[in-house]
Amino acid sequence: MFARDALSYDPIPLPDRLDLSDEQMLAAAQAFHDMMRKRHTVRDYSDRPVPREVIETCIRTAGTAPSGANHQPWHFAAVSDPALKQRIRDEAEEEERRFYAGGAGDEWIKALEPIGTNAVKEHLTVAPWLIVVFAQRWGQFEDGTRYKNYYVPESVNIATGFLLAALHHAGLCTLTHTPNPMRFLNDALNRPASEKPTMIIAVGHPAENATVPAVAKLKKPLEEISSFF
């Protein structure tokens, strides 16, 4: 990405430029909206395999996201090994049992009731892929000297959004899962102390009998999520 002795500004002409008419822009925006409005968080998965190349390409897309100082402070650990998925599920469910046994508090548990979740996370073993997102809090030069990463949560969240959109565009379903705490994922996936796991994304095809909670179809209207000045 960059070397300690090569930190210089070197502008180049904009390599890729879209030049759409107003009508083309609106059509493109509408088409993307129509695609993304079909995205659903899915908890019921088929065991139908997903080729590694598809996952690799979607992660490449995530890697095109903007980031603070272009440090790209993210790592995506893609897991298809059944034994490793089982280990992740076992440790995640242990945390989830504490969560649902009172660790979350009554208000949070009440808020989750319309979603229908509980401590059993079958998707972590049935879905063919798990992608664990890590945020790199600092980096290191080749001599071991640390350097600071900037706007890490914002950068990683943007890249994760790119990833979810890419996976949906490829015809796949996803579920974002955030057991708390998640430090066990560093040990399971051999990631360094500089990285903080932010979520597990289950990826695959929906089961034939897959359902979604009715409340998930309730989206705030444009006037509630935007202001124009």
Automatic annotation (TrEMBL):
One of its GO terms (molecular function) is oxidoreductase activity. The keyword Flavoprotein applies. InterPro entries: Nitroreductase (IPR029479), Nitroreductase-like (IPR000415), Nitroreductase/BluB (IPR050627). Keywords: Flavoprotein, FMN, Oxidoreductase. It comes from the Bacteria. Residues 37-205 form the Nitroreductase domain. PANTHER family: IODOTYROSINE DEIODINASE 1, NADPH NITROREDUCTASE. This is Nitroreductase. It comes from Ruegeria marisrubri.
